[in-house]
Write a structure and sequence with these properties.
Elements lengths: L3 E3 L7 E2 H17 L4 H10 L7 H7 L10 H10 L5 H10 L20 H7 L28 H27 L11 H13 L7 H15 L7 E5 L6 H16 L3 E6 L2 H15 L5 E4 L11 H13 L4 E5 H8 L4 H4 L8 E6 L9 H14 L3 E6 L22 E3 L4 H7 L3 E9 L1 H8 L4 E4 L3 H11 L5 E3 L5 H12 L6 E3 L13 E5 L3 H8 L11 E8 L10 H13 L6 H14 L9 H6 L9 H7 L8 E5 L8 H9 L3 H8 L3 E4 L1 H9 L3 E3 L2 H4 L4 E3 L5 E2 L3 E2 L7 H5 L1
Parallel strand pairs: 3-8, 3-9, 4-6, 4-7, 5-6, 7-8, 10-15, 11-13, 11-14, 12-13, 14-15, 16-19
Antiparallel strand pairs: 1-2, 16-17, 18-19, 20-21
Length: about 725
């Protein structure tokens, strides 16, 4: 009797033997990039072994039953290769290829809840289908020559093989059901590098001092690209041209060493959006640059088919240049879920640019550094720490930090960072002391000044004091479309005060003669200073650091950062000097030592024991850089709400992923309680609920969105009064 893998009303059913062979080949090709093709092929051949069970075959024929199929392949490999510890790692991958990597022993507080041990005990011991022969497992390249114990390396390797398997399974299943799915073709890094060269040549000769320094940094990036893969730093003052220099280094370095893609990682959405546009323009091919984050706007693509192609590419990062967030990048490296892990195998053999590297998540610093080191050690990656304020993460800075990056192994790309700092010093930093909102508003009224505060409430309060028309406002309570309009007005010459949250501190090319910054971490102050006298048109711009009035403190997780910044501001005449920055980060990491792995991720890994019972599901549940439960609210009316094209896509679009990304231009994030209340009161509605659930909620009452300051979530208990 024929055994099937997939059934369909539209085409011949897919034979199980054909599906296993296809997944074997694809998984092996995915894992060959890091020297683990044989093990991935074994996983591919065994992942659907349970489908030989009569109960599952009856399910394909329409019988309603709960027959599972993923545990049998995991049990088979443990029985077949009892003497190989690697068999346990592959068993995790097979058992989790639908629901996610499970815990080894204990039930999880995450998903899936059922541990591997229980899955194995419930699985049947089956024979291989006729025609399936397993290759002999070999020790893969990343696991050769490891010192014992090597728990971190082993669990990391498991995720990489899991990625190779699940991506292959998804692609081959997709190929059966939707063979015309719009996936992209291959790309040539040489063509992208040549397009970048042509773009840079078009800038012409460097005439100003600032542009000559930018050209010097760019030349250094080109000359040092031939250095062997590993860790690099690119320490360039704000405004020093590090974006183009980093991309130039990355493309040249990839071509010099046969690496496959460039992955650009940044902590802020504002940086992501701007940098992706810069990269698309620089390489001359929008389809070559994948922008992967929750706010990606696909309106640049000519049609919904093209947008869907990029959505599919985002599933596994199948593009030569990927622009993503720190949340996407780091959470994926510690995830157990199939959708998040699919991309991991495509990180191997990449140049990873960590822009604003000082924003490495402090509470997860140790596991993040361990992952970066493992990518360079076992998976052919180079990592570039790109920032004006390098964090103190070398073994020289933090000798007691096991995960610190060896100073001897990290190379600086920029020519003499201290000289660059001195040459590009364009501001003076002064401490302004405590300031009430009304006093601050009076100081900046009628002046071209940027005021950056720590929370949206204070930004709105200051804006209201100054008055609509006399100031501009920026915060994430405004849609991306609205913020872009405000930024355009600033760049067009608005000469009044701008009140903003920290979203302008990096990646936004603004230039003010004076900047006021509510006290925060020194890295934030440095970024704020980068918006002052950015182009060197004055002898010295003025940056004032102030303590806000009571009721507007920094977020709780940044109080210590602000306290240490105050100490550095008192101790150093130039708090922007690299020595001051180094002192700040050393003190921050020293004082936060107990919190550098606040959820005990490494302890959980190290506690797996000799049987390698890694708690994958628990680790993924605990590794959450953002605990925010905010939900998207689409602004449906007004100048910054849905336009006709977006509304048409929302109402008639075929692909929910493309719809979701297109809606981000018109979306703000609100608490679930507020969003639910808006729907209950009739101020918002759920679009296409029967198809997409509550994914798309549209605000209909325009009175709740101010055309100068955006949506106001204050006093949500009064929403009824606002609405009626």
């Amino acid at each position: 009797m024929a055994l099937f893998a997939h059934s369909s009303d539209q085409k011949p059913w897919e034979l199980l033997i054909d599906h296993l062979a296809a997944v074997r080949a694809a998984a092996g090709a995915n894992a060959r990039r890091f020297g683990a093709d044989t093990l991935a092929e074994i996983a591919g051949l065994l992942h659907d072994l349970g489908k030989v069970k009569p109960g599952f075959q009856r399910k394909l024929h329409g019988e309603a039953n709960s027959t599972s199929h993923s545990g049998e392949g995991a049990r088979y490999i443990l029985e077949a290769f009892k003497d190989s510890p690697i068999a346990k790692l592959i068993a995790f991958c097979i058992a989790g290829h639908h629901s996610g990597l499970p815990n080894g022993l204990a039930r999880s507080h995450g998903q899936p809840a059922t541990p591997l041990r229980e899955r194995i005990s419930q699985a049947e011991l089956l024979e291989l289908p006729k025609g399936v022969d397993l290759p002999v497992p070999r020790v893969p390249v990343p696991l050769q020559g490891l010192a014992q114990p090597a728990h971190f390396e082993l669990q990391f390797f498991t995720r990489m093989v899991f990625s190779a398997l699940v991506d292959a399974d998804f692609i081959e299943t997709e190929r059966y059901y939707t063979p015309d799915a719009p996936r992209g073709a291959g790309f040539d890094l040489t063509e992208l590098r040549d397009a970048l060269s042509q773009k840079l040549a078009g800038f012409g000769p460097a005439l100003s001092d600032v542009n000559r320094l930018r050209a010097e940094v760019l030349a250094a990036a080109q000359s040092r690209a031939a250095l062997s893969p590993g860790f690099f730093t690119l320490t360039v003052p704000t405004g020093g041209g590090k974006t183009y220099s980093a991309l130039r280094f990355a493309l040249d370095h990839a071509l010099a060493h046969g690496l496959r893609r460039v992955i650009y990682v940044a902590p802020f959405m504002a940086i992501i959006e701007q940098t992706a546009n810069v990269f698309r323009d620089a390489v001359g091919d929008a389809d070559a640059v994948l922008e992967h984050h929750s706010g990606f706007d696909l309106s640049d693509f000519p049609d919904e088919f093209a947008a869907e192609r990029m959505k599919l590419a985002a599933q596994n990062w199948d593009r030569p240049v990927v622009v993503t967030t720190a949340v996407q990048f780091y959470e994926s490296l510690f995830s157990n879920r199939t959708q998040k892990c699919r991309k991991l195998h495509n990180i191997a053999n990449s140049v990873i640019i960590l822009d604003e590297a000082q924003s490495l998540p402090v509470n997860y610093l140790r596991p993040c550094l361990a992952a970066l080191k493992e990518l360079t050690r076992g998976y052919g990656c180079s990592v570039v720490l790109c920032t004006a304020t390098q964090p103190a993460i070398s073994d020289k800075d933090m000798p007691n930090l096991k995960e610190a990056i060896p100073k001897s192994a990290s190379r600086e790309i920029a020519p003499d960072p201290e000289r660059l700092h001195d040459a590009m010093r364009r501001v003076e930093v002064q401490q302004a002391g405590a300031m009430r909102n009304d006093d601050l508003a009076a100081r900046v009224a009628g002046r071209k000044a940027l005021v950056i505060v720590n929370n949206k409430r204070q930004a709105r309060a200051l804006f209201d004091l100054l008055g609509k028309g006399r100031a501009l406002h920026l915060s994430t309570n405004m849609t991306a479309r609205h913020r872009q309009d405000v930024l355009a007005r600033i760049k067009a010459g608005f000469d009044g005060p701008v009140i903003s949250t920290a979203l302008v501190e990096a990646g936004v090319d603004l230039d003010f003669p004076e900047v006021w910054r509510a006290v925060a971490g020194l890295d934030s102050i440095v970024q704020a200073a980068g918006r002052c006298n950015r182009n060197g048109l004055m002898a010295k711009g003025q940056v004032y650091v102030f303590d806000p009035e009571d009721g507007f403190p920094p977020p709780p997780e940044l109080v210590l950062n602000a306290d240490i910044a105050r100490e550095v501001l008192r101790a150093y005449p130039d708090p922007l000097h690299p020595d001051a920055i180094r002192a700040y980060f050393q003190r921050l990491y020293w004082d936060r030592n107990a919190d550098l792995d606040s959820r005990c991720i490494l302890k959980q890994i190290e506690g797996a024991g000799s049987q390698l019972d890694f708690p994958f599901a628990d680790i993924a549940a605990d590794f959450r850089l953002i605990e925010d439960a905010s939900r998207p609210l689409i602004i449906g009316t007004g100048d910054y709400g849905l336009d006709a094209e977006a509304r048409g896509l929302l109402e008639h679009g075929k692909f929910p992923g493309a719809i979701a990304r297109a809606m981000q231009r018109f979306t703000v994030l609100v608490a679930p309680r507020i969003r639910n209340e808006l729907v209950r009161l009739g101020a918002a509605h759920v679009a296409r609920a029967e198809e997409f659930g509550d994914q798309f909620v549209v605000l209909d009452n325009g009175a709740l969105y101010d055309d100068a300051a955006g949506f106001s979530p204050e006093n949500p208990e009064d929403l009824g009064n606002l609405i009626h």
